[in-house]
Amino acid sequence: MAEKFKLNDHERETLIFNRRMIVAGVVVLLLLSGLAAWMVYLQVYRYEYFAARSDGNRLHSQYVPPNRGLILDRNGVLLAANRPIFNLTVVRETAANLDVSLDLLRSVINLSDDDIEQYRTRQSRRAVPHTSVPLRYQLTEEEIAEVAVNQHMLPGFAVEAQLVRHYPFADMSAHAIGYVSEINKDELEAMSPEQAANYRGTHQIGKTGVEKTYEDMLHGQVGYETVEKNNRGQVMRVLDRTDPVPGRDIVLHMDSRLQAAAERALGDQRGAVVAIDPATGGVLAMVSKPGYDPNLFVTGISRAQLSELNRSGHTPLFNRATASRVPGSTIKPFIGLAGLYNKVITPETVIGDPGYFRLSGRSRPYYDWTWWVDKSGHGPIDLQRAIYQSCNTYFYQLAVDLGIDRIHDYLLTFGFGQNLAIDIPEASVGIVPSEAWKRENRNEPWYAGETPYEGIGNGIFQATTLQMASAAAAIANHGVLKQPRMLRGTIGNDGEITDVIFEDTAASRQLLPSQEQIELVRNAMVDVVNKPYDPEHRRHEGSAYPVLRESGRPLEYPMAGKSGTAQVVEFQVDSAGNRDNTEVDEKFRTHAMFIAFDASEKSRIAVAVFVENGGGGGSVAFPVARAVLDAYLLPEQPQYPEVSTLASADDGHAH
Amino acid sequence: MATRTPSRPLGNSFYQLSTGRGEIWQSLRIDPPLVLSLFCLAVYGLMVLFSASGENVADVQRQAAAIVVAFFVMIAVAQLEVDFFRRGAPLMFLGGLVVLGVVLAIGSEVNGAKAWLDLPGLPSFQPSELEKFLVPMMLAWYMSTRSLPPKFRDLIVCAVIILIPAALILLQNDTGTALMVIMSGVFTVLLAGLSWKIVVAGGVALMAASPAWYIFLAQPHQKNRILTFFDPYRDPTGAGYNIIQSQIAIGSGGVQGKGWLNGAQSQLDFIPESNTDFILAVLAEEFGLLGVLFLIFLYLLVLARGFYIAFTAQDTFSRLLAGSIVLTFFFYAFVNMAMVSGLMPVVGLPLPLVSKGGTSIVTLLIGFGILMSIQTHKRVLPR
Q: Which of B:157-216 have CB within 8 Å of A?
């Protein structure tokens, strides 16, 4: 029975199995056809789409920042260079788990919360997706190694070399050269679209000084390259490249030796020195003290570093060379010229100086400095002696005779009250008061009692050290003012310097006195420094001569100058005409000023010195001015400043 | 190789005569069409692997060595009589269960699955892989003692035979293999003539149960895979990354491909697991649609020969076993290709004979060894 069934079963089972196998075969064929159709869909119909996606994966257009142009001094010494640093960068889109990676990095390299915060700011203002954003600048060699070892756990992170600005002299010329620092949002938004495109690969932009003024020239033209990157963001090969055009190398009039000498001469005092070549207007030195290390700003200054800078209370970031203040007696030669030009006085005009000046019909006395010494005056005095003796009474009288508006008009032509500098846009314009000016700015009429003070530079009038140097240079240059300028020329690809010629409009606007009149003032300024004691007559020596004699070193070149002392607070004078001479707090001490120039026929240098709360112009500022002239005019070669290489190393460890 | 009287029904080539050259292969227990097509697949696979592994010669040598060993194992298995499998089926099945138990006790863990046995002196292997043959073998043996189609009682027994090893493998936390073992069992029962009503009912029940499974039983990573399947871009750099990059690779290959060793996606490491589960993406990118179709063609050759062997097998046991092995092989290949191209959620299955991995190739070829044994041990009756 079972046997028979089995035989029947066999036929039937075979049939069942075969049917099932055929069904299975059909299903297999259908499924494989479906799969093949799907592949056709993906690889034929959607080929373009996926090919583009694939290229998008691997091909990255990136911007190649141009090398920033170098800044050199007149002797070819580098004032601003570029040096390579290694940065840790992140491509956010590739960094799968940023926080985990950051935690890992924190454990292997020096990465502060400040760094991460700064990175997030940079990330938020990055314009182009899939480009790298710096996380930490200036990795040390050990840190580069640590990142390399952990690279597999840091997708999207890379160590990239970058050229950044380096200022070899650190503090020395920080204010004049300025610095570059990270581009901020406002700067980006202020750019035109073309400009913004040109900065796509650039992290830093000139913020102050020459770096800012000549940003366009120094920056260059961005390049592009198409690279193939792998999944970890490493560049496998460069497929296409448009080279960037490097920025122009520029040459300044500045002489780094003179800059260093001026800085040394100021020592620890706060103040400024500006030296100008009278023949060209070229700024040979521009120092503001205290200085700061501009290298700190290049890759972003940390809060701690910034507050460290500001802690002294001496505002090191403030450029004292281009800030205005009352000039004291350094203004007197220009008031004298105004008198001669307006024919209010002649060289022969003599007035009597009893030690004070009174406006007609008023009782209030305006004292001469001699009054504080021995309650006497200069006696009969002419312009020349009024200048070299720095007689106040003469200039009180002259100012009153001129009237404030004629003083205003004349001082304008020496560059006061405006920024004549061609390429120092941040310089203050100062104040040259007039009746109209006062009505407009203080809504008050001009009081006759104010005019005498304008004659001695202790009134409303204010000038910058730069303007004083420039005006002194005009006298040195026999009355012809050249507009001050930093830029001397650019260096072409062939290494040749091409001078940059600026159209100079200052001279044409000058109310020039005659040559005799200029020579008189020039000679009077020579007397300031050189006129020795006259045994016959009291007060016939130059006001700076005693300091020169005390120094024990006679001058080896003709030097002219004028000292000035600017009051910070008004002296208290009692009814008997006695000044309260008690020692005042340092910050209320008078500012010391000195303008000077090489008094040879072809003057090579003019200088203005300002020492904040320094005391007397003759005793404090004159030695500084002399040291600057010595450095420039004496035959022995002055030293080049020391190059700061430590700064870079310090930065690396500062994090 | 064989002459067949046209009048005889297809499955009943009982009196087949071996003649000529075929006789030599028959005596060697080798089926040339099967071996040849498998060999072509393996060579093609090595070529792709060389590119997918970043031109790593050592990887390719290791894989080639595994292939050589696997071919010898296949031929060795083919020397065994079909009767050996038939009679031994219950014992081997029980033995398999014991080994699975041992693995649970002392097995070592790889990628979260405690499925590997590290015996001293032996290469580590995955006993659960063998269940893909042991379960169909046991079912085929059981079914061959019953009359077909299986009755309800038989189905209960079949379910028990399938579910015990499947449960043990699930306990090892190896869902993928468990699924394959269940599928190999289901194929056997289907071929045995499981009523279509039950098939349809089962299908409907599965569909109905799947939301419940998704809500109550599915683990987060499983849910994630399913969500990612429906929308890879919900997490393009995380869960969806593999499938997005693999589709980009396939699609950007176009008709002709980017050329061997020139696949940008593959060579720049955009495809994860490019030398194991996702190797099809490399193949599709570098050899294009033509390469994919050629691969499907090679699989079809193997399948066609497998179908032929199953059709011409001489008894129920052989047929069911051969059919199940062939369909399981197809299932493997299809699931992998469908998942890599984005037609199915991602499950961790290699592309048979192409993906890197010696164990997978050896177990695969053990299956084909059984097929060859079935094909070459036919009883030849005199006329």
A: 187, 190-193
| Domain-wise residue ranges, chain A | 68-219+245-252, 256-489+497-633
Q: Three-class SS of residue A267? A: coil
Identify the pLDDT of residue B4.
Answer: 47
CB contact under 8 A, B192 and A16: yes
Residue-wise pLDDT tens digits, B32-41: 999 999 999 9
Assembly ipTM = 0.91
- Chain B interface, mutation test: which of A1, A9, A16, A17, most B Cβ atoms within 10 Å? A17
Confidence band of A573 (pLDDT split at 50, 70, 90):
low
C-beta neighbour count of A75 within 10 angstroms: 11
Question: Do the domains A256-489+497-633 and A68-219+245-252 match in fold?
Answer: no
- Min Cα separation B59/chain A (Å): 21
Dihedral pair phi/psi, residue A535, rounded to 5°: -65, -25
Distance between CA atoms of residues B80 and B137, nearest Å: 14
- Looking at the DSSP bridge assignments, the partners of residue A285 are A275
Distance from CA of B333 to the nearest CA of A (A): 10
Whether A307 is catalytic: no
Given this model, what pLDDT does residue A589 score?
82
* pLDDT tens-digit map of B133-160: 999 999 999 998 888 788 889 999 999 9
Say how far apart CA A627 and CA A648 lie, in whole Å: 31
Distance CA A390, CA A332 (A): 8
**Residue B57 within a domain:** yes
Q: How many CA atoms lie within 13 A of B166 on its CB side?
A: 18
Residues of B in contact with A18 (CB under 8 A): 10-11, 311
Residues in chain A: 655
How far from A285 is each of A65, A259, A636, CA to CA, in Å? 31, 5, 19
Q: What is the pTM of this model?
A: 0.69
- B73 falls within a domain: yes
In terms of Cβ atoms closer than 10 Å to its own Cβ (0-12, 13-18, 19+), residue A493 is: exposed
Q: How many domains does chain B have?
A: 1
Closest to A349 in 3D by CA, of A388, A383, A390: A383
Question: Between the CA of residue A290 and those of A57, A74, A180, A590, what are the distances in Å?
Answer: 53, 24, 19, 18
Q: Which letter does DSSP use for residue B214 in this model?
A: I
User: Which class would CATH give A256-489+497-633?
Assistant: alpha beta
Interface residue B298 vs chain A (CB under 8 A): no
Q: Which residues of chain B does A39 touch, with a Cβ-Cβ cutoff of 8 Å?
A: 250, 284, 289, 292-293, 341
Which residues in chain B are closer than 8 Å to A228, comparing Cβ atoms?
264, 268
The rounded distance, in Å, linking the Cα atoms of A167 and A170 is 5
Say if CB B16 and CB B328 are below 8 A apart. no
Active-site hit among A173, A256, A288, A329: A329
Q: Would B159 be classed as within a structural domain?
A: yes
**Topology annotation, domain A68-219+245-252:** Penicillin-binding protein 2a (Domain 2) (3.90.1310)
pLDDT digits (tens, 9 = 90+) for A522-547: 999 999 999 999 888 888 899 999 99
Enclosing H/E stretch for B236: none
- Range of the structural domain that residue B41 is part of: 28-376
- Give, in order, the Cα–Cα distances in Å from B12 to each of A17, A437, A572, B20, B229: 12, 122, 134, 22, 45
Q: Is B381 a domain residue? A: no
Confidence band of A129 (pLDDT split at 50, 70, 90): low
pLDDT at A341: 92
B316 and A13: CB-CB below 8 Å?
Answer: yes
Closest Cβ–Cβ partner in A6, A49, A57 for B270 = A57
Strand ranges for chain B from DSSP E: 2-3, 17-18, 108-110, 113-116
